[in-house]
Amino acid sequence: MTAGLETESTRWIIHDERVVDDTRKTRLHIAKVELPDGVEFEQYVLRCPRAAMVLAVDDQDRVLLMWRHRFIIDRWCWELPGGYVDDEEDIEAAAGRELLEETGWRAERLEELVTYQPMVGIADHECVVYLAEDVTQATDARDPNEAESLAWVPLTEALGMVRSKEIVGAATVTALLALHARRLESRPVS
After folding, report:
1. Cα dihedral sign for 125, 146, 162, 111?
2. pLDDT greater at residue 95 or residue 25
3. Are 17 and 31 within 8 A, CB to CB?
4. Alpha-carbon dihedral of residues 174, 179, 180, 181, nearest 10 degrees?
5. Which of 55, 84, 108, 158 has the greatest number of C-beta atoms within 10 Å?
6. pTM (predicted TM-score)
């Protein structure tokens, strides 16, 4: 569908990009950009490492969600387990590591569900969500800094929580909708 749509006439050009701040997981840059019509401006750009998340689904069609506080928006939210991929770490291995660390559950097999960029206008932050349909509880121990509690929520209820804004995080919303779309596509046509 995208073949032949790319043209240089609408490409934005980066003339310069400099680091403003470099933190543990995010670098803030300022880019000098030129629009196709010749207008130039400076734009803040976030450069972030990749992130890996896991949508774990059990045999009762429930999804594993974490209840946690997000200080930036000062809200309690239901979210998927996941986090940043360490340097040189395999992204699928990172997804499995995050699932285990944050929830105590282990995935026997992970399958890439969806990859997305949550804020393409300001950030370079590739996020990959893996689907795990064969999980077992490995330990009751989990990182207390990550979640207040865990819950297995029926998928249909979780989709309703997206509509009612109980689930607002991009990774969780995207993953739930991607799984729902996949299932709709695989239904037999009558």
Report:
1. positive
2. 95
3. yes
4. 90
5. 55
6. 0.86
